[in-house]
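Reopening: structure tokens for the zinc ion complex, inputs below.
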Amino acid sequence: MPRPFLPVEGPAPVTSVGEFIHEEPVKSPFMQPLFPAIGKNHMKSSFMKPFFHAIILMMSLQTTSIAYAAELVATDPIRLQPESKANKIVDRQDAQVPDRVHLGNGLLGTRIRRNAIDWLPVQAAVNANGFLDRHATYDLTGEYYGKWLEASTLSWANTREPRLRDAIDKSVEKLLKYQSEDGYFGPFPPAKRWSPPWDVWSHKYILIGLSTYYRYTGNREALEAAKKTADLLCRDFSESRRSLAIGHCGGMSSYSLLEPMVWMYRLTGDERYRSLCDYIVRSWEQPRNLQIVSGLLEKKGVKGLKAYEYLSCVNGMLEWYRITGDPNLLQAALNAWEDIVTKRLYITGSSSQKEIFGGDHFLPNTGDVCETCVTVTWLQFNTHLLRLTNEARFAQQLERTCYNHLCGAQRPDGKHWGYYVNLEGGSKYGSGPFPCCIGSGPRGMAMIPTFAVATDADGVVMNFYDAGNATLNLRDGSEVRLTIDGKFGAEPKSSVTVELPQSKDFAIKLRIPYWCEEPSVRVNKEPISFPKNLTTDAYLPIKRMWKSGDVVTIECPLSPRIILGEYGNRGRLAVAYGPLVLATDAKLNGDGQPRQVLRPAEETLRSFTVEPAPEPFLDWPGAQVFRIAVRGGEARLVPFSVAGCGGQFYQVWPLYEGGIPENGNLFATAVESYSRTGRINKSLFQNGSVWTNDGKKADEDWFALALDNPVTINCVTFIHGKSEPPGGWFDTSAGKPKVQVKNEKGGPWITIGEFADYSDTTAETCNNKKLQQMGSPFVLTLDQPQSIFAVRVIGKPSCGNKPEQNYVTCSGLRAALLPTNSTASPR
Ligand SMILES: [Zn+2]
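Re-run output (same inputs, fresh job):
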């Protein structure tokens, strides 16, 4: 017997929903602190009772004539409002209304539910009563509000959480009161309109929110309001009136209006909207303008461009491609995708440094990388390309992004989102100066059900295997119900059970994950052979006469994979397991010594074991952590999606023994020590300084690195820390700071030179700028290479204006073997 729909099963006790509506929370199955497996036992579970009442109520409202579907269609499927204009280019893979695909208690399902239950309703209070009330002064209100409205509408469609719907309805009602007679929503008087950098951009997001809300709910007032805004934009912007090349990044922010203007054109068929879209794309190509299409066709790439705004324009360009059918637009987008994937994409599935697409293969792990807005527009970009081409390579990228960087940006309890989400660091979650990312992350999460399982001309497409269920309409209108079981990411086997009103001939296409080397697939008991031309970039189609009860089993053996770092990550390695990129995490490895030095690749693989995740890493029922041998013992790795979740240090790319990093530092994996433990911020290997200020006075201070095996060096670099009024520099009144080494293990320190260019100072004074700012390098180059086990820099500490103490700071120490006659110092 088919099971009732179980849209969600809730892991976390929810308080926030009740909080924001200030009412007695209604019991909901979403709110139970249980992790029931998807299975028939659910039916007996007492917590399901309220849900069954809902099903019975909904069933009584059903008018469906499909007898078998009485239980299946328990949630009264949403019918999107029709569009007036058909696309010239029909999607090869169909987007799903989120109420057709319900992910359950897998990793993504859990996160999607927390987004819908623990974040979006709470943000309703912030939005409706906070952001909207700041409307009069804040020009980014529309951005944040529009994203929230879209995310909440999709999440409501997926969960049917009544309080979320209530919050949406009330907030839209409030929003519409802010609209001027002529359609304007912003805070500026007519004479100032559109000049502030984010005014058009904010209206774009209001259009996105209102048009989505209308399509899902049929609310005509929302549509009329959106039309008034679109009319206003059409009146104000054109070649003969005002240029859209305003706002941020050469107008990229304003030009990204293209996406919802295409939506508005499709919805209404109003030719003025089409004209505005046409104007936007034409305008890009004017001399000295953005040249988005021609630049991409000439393969100029995206280096140096503002990533979020640029991808927003490119996403609009793909919507416009659907209308016009101009093949150049698709080709331009594919070129952008290729450029990003090959040169600018992190292994966790995001991009950008300080919101910009960086140089070729420049992927630093720290320093404000991977803005969540970029993660989500990248996700949208891949969904567009997946639908347009039906090629699995885009679904592969979606898996990479969703399971790693998107979940990594969301706090595991769903109650916060990150702005920059570095691959190494200590604090991932925080809105930064703007609310852009905490609005974007929830959108990305809410979009997953639209593509996790889909349909195409041949039948069903399985993009993701997160546990859950789906009721899909094939293109001939017939219905297929799928139940996906397993713990994708934690267990190798996933199964898909098919239910149909009657047997039917169609294909189920399985995405073979890119990391899966030896997949095996069965239908019922029968093995399916793989066509010879199937690569990891393809779907495995299984075309047959399907009948109810057929079970497809896909098995992707899970084993650790080593990714050896290149370019800036040379000398480092990352470990992945199935779809998950892993990271070291200080919480599991002793907060005092967060930095782990891994064993070489083969040893890391040999020592790898899996165990259930402890709190706080238990973010879903199948969550696991991983134990590996490291220098000095063993360490545990956690999925990037939970790494650093309590603010502790984490690292995707640790150094490994024998690895030589890009800067050539042969002591990169050394054990570090100092004369005194002072205000130690980080370590000699991380961004930050080591301080020796213990409040006392010492005759000398030193910073040392030691290895087990000797290395040959001819150059030592000392990176100065930050000097302050009470000290931090070396006092050179009795001599410059010296470099000492050990030529034997455990042997004596031998002086090999000094930093002659270190400025003259006293214990009390340091007038040199180079010593006052952090990061200044001092280099000692040796005439002859030396084989050494250890190196240290030693000198007299300074006291500045506090004579009762003294100290020195250091933010890095390196030793390298440079080619002879090279004067370059290791960076
Ligand atoms: Zn952002």
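Residues 371-373, 419, 436-437, 440 surround zinc ion (CB under 6 Å). The chain has four domains: 77-451, 455-488+492-555, 560-651, 671-816. Marking as resolved unless the reporter disagrees.
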